Amino acid sequence: MTLLEVVTIDGPAGAGKSTVARRVAEKLNFRFLDTGAMYRAVTWAALEGGLEASESKNLDQLLCDLDLSFEAGGRLMVNGQDVTSAIRERHVTAQVSAYAALPSVRKLMSRAQRTMGEVGALVCEGRDMGTFVFPDAAVRIYLDASAQVRAERRAKELRDKGEDVDFDALLNEIKARDAADSSRAVAPLKRVPEQHYVDSSDMSRDDVIANLLAIAAKGLDGAARS
Ligand code: DC
Known about the structure:
The chain is built from 9 helices and 8 strands. The protein is an alpha/beta fold. The protein has a single domain (3-217), classed as 3-Layer(aba) Sandwich (Rossmann fold). It has a 5-stranded parallel beta sheet, with helices on both faces. Strands 3-4-5 form a 3-stranded antiparallel beta sheet, with helices on one face. Helix 1 crosses helix 9 and helix 2 packs across helix 5. The model has no long low-confidence stretch (mean pLDDT 94). The chain binds 2'-deoxycytidine-5'-monophosphate (DC). 2'-deoxycytidine-5'-monophosphate binds at residues 13, 35-36, 39-40, 96-97, 100, 126-129, 177, 181. The site of 2'-deoxycytidine-5'-monophosphate (DC) has 14 residues, from helix 2, helix 4 and helix 8.
């Protein structure tokens, strides 16, 4: 089996994957891929077009016409429009699991992701990177945190932005997304023994980054020697 020069980081919503994965990529001098952003972009485009997840024919057309690209600086463009902020809005977050569960959507996204990984030097984060898209990655990590801690982190982020927070509603949203992401038929979020498991509930962000970097460095070194 060829080991790709790829580091995968999977885990549930709000485990802090994006921030730490981005830093790990910077330190390794690898490219970074936020695959959740890709599923969010499809969801954003479908909602803009007024398409529900059940409208498979129209969605197939939308996917066919979809021009999705990451620009320098990490900005995400969809059909010529900068959607970097729009994909983080609450209505997109609330709907994304439904669109991400569709086999046609997953097929297109995972194919694009594999193309990006084939040339190596990639850190990617999502739900199925190590289990489905890159089972042959040199390093596979599962980054976890308890639902309570994830909701507390998210509540702090929102309060820091000056938003009102209903903590119980936030916790329930996180649990609902965990359930939807773990129970879908195609490429669900799951842990496998081959992944390095890191529970960040009681760790600072810097500790998580240091931990992941150590795991990645060791795994990449081992893969290079094998
Ligand atoms: O990580 P995030 O919250 O931005 O992800 C948005 C949604 O996309 C999430 O509900 C699960 C889905 N997703 C997925 O199904 N597979 C991935 N590889 C990444 C994200």
